[in-house]
Amino acid sequence: MSYRWNMTQVNVLPDMPDAPADFLAGQAALPMQGADRLTLLDDPQEWAAFSLPEQDSSGCWSSSVVFEGMHCAACAITLEDALRAVPGVASVQISSASHRARVVWSPEQTRPSEWMQSVERFGYKAIPANDAHAHERRRQEARRMVWRLSVAAMCMMQVMMYATPAYLSQPGEISAESMHLLRWASWVLSLPVVFFSCAPFFASAWRDLRERQVSMDLPVALGMVVTFVVSSLGTFEPNGPFGAEVYFDSLTMFVFFLLLGRWLELRLRDRTAGALEAVLNRLPDSVRKRQPNGTWALISIRRLAVGDVIEVLPGEAFAGDGRVLSGQTQVDEALLTGESLPLTRQAGDRVIAGSHNLSGTLEVQIEQVGASTRYAQIVALMENASVSKPAMALLVDRWAKPFLVAVLLASLGSAIYWWPTDPARALMVAVAVLIVTCPCALSLATPAAMLATAGALARSGVLVRRLEALQNLASIDTVIFDKTGTLTRDALQVVRTHTRSGVRPEQALAWASSLARHSLHPVSRALWSEARQQAEAVGELPALEALLAQKVSEQAGQGVCGLLCSNGGAAVSLRLGSAAFCQAPVFNGHHLQVSLADDSGWLATFELAEEVRSEAAGVVQALKEMGLTLKILSGDGQAAVTQVAQSVGIADAQGGCNPQDKLQALKVWQAQGHKVAMVGDGLNDGPVLAGADVSFALGQALPLAQSKADFVLMGGQLGVLVSTVLRSRHTLRVVKQNLVWAAFYNAACVPLALMGLLPAWAAGLGMALSSLLVVLNALRLAQGLSPVPALQSNTSQTSPT
Amino acid sequence: MDILYLLIPLSVALVFFILAGLWWAIHRGQFEDIEAEGERILRND
Questions:
Q1: A188 touches B: beta carbon within 8 Å
Q2: Domain map of chain B by residue range?
């Protein structure tokens, strides 16, 4: 599967006229063209560009799309209903803050064009995400938005000037003719505001009316129309029932603030999506591949296959994961791992798709392409997270609709109540109620803050799998570390080998490595790489690689077993793992021990030394200062665990646990009322990670798609753990501030408006400011993570070379 | 105060004139990459 590999072939999106009409045109204007561009997407190769096959063998695909024309939680509900109504669509998840959705559908029953058309009937547009055009559309949208805002701003300022005399003068001070002239001028300048700047509100309100839906734009648009009509009547019939006052100043100011809020929201969304899009757009369109005759030919990245050799020039991104054949360079992997320093890569080193080649020309042999690259896994993870809905946001969504209906009824009631006293006043009170109650702030409060945080974390190399986890992380009081690969570095060194008499150490290592190469456990990887190094030194690498074990199975926390068929001989059953698993003698010493056994018993024991991460002690110190309880649960022997625990400063360390023991211990702590975060390498502790309230996975070799952790620390550095916890606490504070503010604002203003004490301009100002405040408050979280002072000196030493 | 009959329509016209200038600036993309102009001095070429 590919991300944006086929953009050159599919010119999917017709150009749109840059006029306000395109908001209204949506469904009618482009039926043929629209259907054509959508049917193009029905080719499996084309839909693969924005879809992934589902993990559970149901044959379904999960596609990610961006919607144009949606504004709020109520729009998301409309879209969800529309998509669910299509037969064959299994599930839909929409994020109203990022306007992205994930649609799971079955190719046996439907095609992408079908469900995309169902959305277009409602006047929205679904754009396949990862489309190169998405960025261009976003730019166009931003430009139109700024233009609408500028028109509203200029006209508002001038209308204010014309309104000032009416506020300042005594009755009778200005002649009726002059007053008429001022009103006329205000009316002329309100026209572009109402008919151009407000067009999106009217379009979306009209769409909702036709579909018998209620969204936040409906009361707002109704308020604008009523104000404009009342004021226009006042302008042209100064002696009529509405002639006492005009409200052009309120109208233009309200529109300006509303657009300003929308514009800031758009920018917040773009900044968060920007982190995503920066990742999305990393892959080049075409690569230079070596032909059999030794020349280089330019091919589409889509035709790139495993085993191809490509040439990568300075400044280009790598198209797939691969190994450097020749050349030396510096690469920038910042977006994928959070590592901000350029890294040196030379022949034999691995490079990852989406990272940038900075300085030299390289020849790279491709080992992974498409969905199996680490890059594709990161992108898929980020997309899933940005559409997951935190519980608080779900609650708000559920209440939005009945609330809006209540608002419409309340404003109708107030208009009827005040009508006998003064019709003009009655209408303006109704307008004030409509405008002041808009629950925009409430529906933005949670997702805006969490998305901003997720974006900031992603830039520092921390992937958030579920937004919900941010909320949980803020309330934890206990952190449990795994040891191997977490507090210690992944890389282990074989320091000593004990063998049964008659067995050569090299022979034992070669046998062990035949099993170890099938496992991702750090110990296995250490054995395999040690064996490779030894074999390479004596030129027997092919012999080692030919040594293949069969029927290999891994027992979590204990070891690996399998059958080794040596040349001509009978198959030997081998076990590699803990001393108990292999019935091996235990040797004294605090090094990590791993044993090898065959049918006749113990063969060899390898002692491996591990290096404690240099930043670990600083992280432990910082976490303690934040009031967290720290513990270690490890599968290794108690002696090795205690030694590591002492060197980093954790008192409570428990060794010799298998995954069930760890889960058991975790459950006990949780039953005592503790909120527990688990930090592991994400490979051997899946059930424990899933059982914890919040889980972190560490380690760069981790296959991301299989990881169950809520947070993935991509750089493999512990330091960001501290800033992530701090940021999550900050996020929860901001969410609470936002919710309290929005609820307080609505509670205070609605009664005032109903009693007629709140003029229309104040209602508009209040409503727009409340949304602005929520978005600006959330924007504070979009800043990059600040390094924790205690760790700075350490992290600079640990940068890989 | 007859002059108002000239000045007020003139001010309306002026607003439209300024808006035309803004339209030109926005649609040439002048507000899209605000940092770029400031950073230009740091570039080598």
A1: yes
A2: 4-42
